[in-house]
Amino acid sequence: MLGPVVMGPVVMGPVMLRSATGLPWPRLAARDAAAEAVAGIVQRPGRAALTMLGTVLGVGAFVAVLGMTATGAGQISQQFTVLEDTMVTVQDNGPANDVAPPDANPAIGFPADADAIARRINGVTAAGVWWPVSLPQGTSFTGSLALSASASQTVSLLAASPGAVQAMGLRLAAGSPLTRYENDTRQHVAMIDTATAAALGISPARLASRPAVFVDGIAYTVVGAYSSAQRVVTNESAMLIPERTALADFGNPQPGIGNQQEAQLVVATRIGAAQAVARQMAAAELPTDPSRLVVTSPPNPQNLQSEVSGDLAGLFLILALVSLFIGAVGIANTTLVAVLERTEEIGLRRAVGARPRHIAAQFLAESTALGTLGGLIGTCVGVATVVIFAAARDWTAVLNPAYTLPAPLIGSVVGLLAGAYPALQAARTSPLAALRHA
Amino acid sequence: MPALRPADLVIEAGDYVAVTGPSGSGKSTLLHLLGLLDAPTEGSYLLDGLDTSTLNDRDRSALRGRRIGFVFQAFHLLPYRTALENVLLAELYNRTPRGGRVEAAVGALDAVELGHRLDALPTTLSGGECQRVAIARALVNRPSLLLCDEPTGNLDSRNAAALMELLDQLNAAGFTIVVITHDPGVAAHAGRAIGISDGMLSERVRAGHAGAGRDGAGRDGAGHA
């Protein structure tokens, strides 16, 4: 019974795994499978678009939620200011048991070299002691007799160490700030803001003539005028005199938080260092009685933001998961319908040599390609959403590449999982049933 | 109840065989056996001298893709693919080198005189043209056996006549053809006529045609489907 029919040369592939038939086994090259999958999608673009809608929404929501959360966390909140975040305040709450005589205030809680101690803490850019000097009611600030002008507005008299003057971040209009020498030698010098100076008839140009301001009968030579300040004296008219001059002239300030008279240490820090500086400050300044000092640091901005965004992001991520699940069901459903619709095609492919696994591979490749495409579009939509969201608020869009770049793969996984059952069904389709003519 | 009763059938290389019979006579079963879509319950089927009844699915798929060309009544062309792409499908699974595929497919379409409609979609082709694309798809691997199942069933008489003429030419060019049909006019083109009735095969020997020979390209055993 031998008599092979020879129909001319049979062309075969370079790799020939010969079987009992002498023919190479059927094979579906990965490249061909991919081409078939793409063809399957491209040929029905409308259906493909609807099928991948769920995946687009799911992946898009995923990318958008993570992007918006990152964008929000990356923003400096509107309440937040750099100045606030770089300031630590230490207040003198007074000694535990009052040892001072009843009619006098106790010595201030800060050591004599408080400025230097604070400066030694890493992260501190400037620090110094200050307090509002308590003046009797109706005390007037009077300019030089020659000028015969007095300030009618309320002017605070502040005692400030040179470090405090530096930490207040004064913008000098004329003259120079209070120096350590002036403090150590208790000079009667002062700095005033330009508004008060103008009211007292002291123009910056006249500073060189050493004008004086009389407070409660004591003359203070104005050495500097400042136009604005970053801390403490930001929106009030104030006259600063050296700390030790104030001690000599007006005595100790009254300790205790709440009386608005207590000595304070104002500390300017580098950005981000305020929390760490605040933790060390009390023990550094007053190791013998650190609890006497009350340290106030700005709220940690990171804590605030993570509290605000944490719950909402979780909710949206659950929504993203739900839409991914819906996307998977959508792909599974459409692929299953396609398998039923294309039984003829399956039969034909079997007739031209496809094995069941090739049929399964084709449908799996199609659903995976659909999912990947959905994931890609979803990622684009998500990124666009984040960018528009950020642009609308004048924020900087923050997208973590670790989440964003692999996002299309979520679609691939969804497509792969969704296609598994339909692909199995397709592989089981009998070519006989498929080719039975209608 | 067996669909096909025990019978010996030898089809030689170059034969042109028509299988006729009424509905339910076992034509489809014979088609499925010859096309390796189904295996006989008893007996054996030798294709090119190779016993196919012991082969696994992988080898049967390889034989089907390489040695058998199917032509169906309903054409079974993929609707969203051009004529050329439909023919290319037959080269997808049998390791035809990628570089030679288009050339072979164009050659097959040329052979059925559709070389000018390579990029036409099946929806824009007439029934006769569709069936010729299907024949080109069946021919592209130069199979040992061209298996046609009611090839003219969906065609009008003019297209049917043209198609039968094409099959005659292919047979003359050396292709072995089995046509399963209920149309006596179609069967008349074949050199050999096999009738099936209630699963019984019978051959009418016609004058002028060589009948059953000793060597067979295909041999079908009894099928009990």
Lay out the secondary structure:
The complex is a heterodimer of chains A (438) and B (225).
Chain A: H1 30-42, H2 45-51, H3 53-74, H4 82-85, E1 87-92, H5 114-119, E2 124-132, E3 141-142, E4 156-160, H6 162-167, E5 171-175, H7 180-184, E6 189-193, H8 194-199, E7 212-215, E8 218-228, E9 238-242, H9 243-250, E10 264-269, H10 274-285, E11 293-296, H11 301-341, H12 343-351, H13 356-392, H14 401-404, H15 407-428, H16 431-435
Chain B: E1 9-11, E2 16-20, H1 27-34, E3 46-47, E4 50-51, H2 57-67, E5 68-71, H3 83-88, H4 98-111, H5 127-139, E6 145-149, H6 157-172, E7 177-181, H7 184-187, E8 192-197, E9 200-204, E10 218-220
Helix pairs in contact in B: 4-5, 5-6
Short structural description:
Chain A is α+β, with helices and mostly antiparallel strands and 438 residues long. In chain A, 47% of the residues lie in helices and 14% in strands.
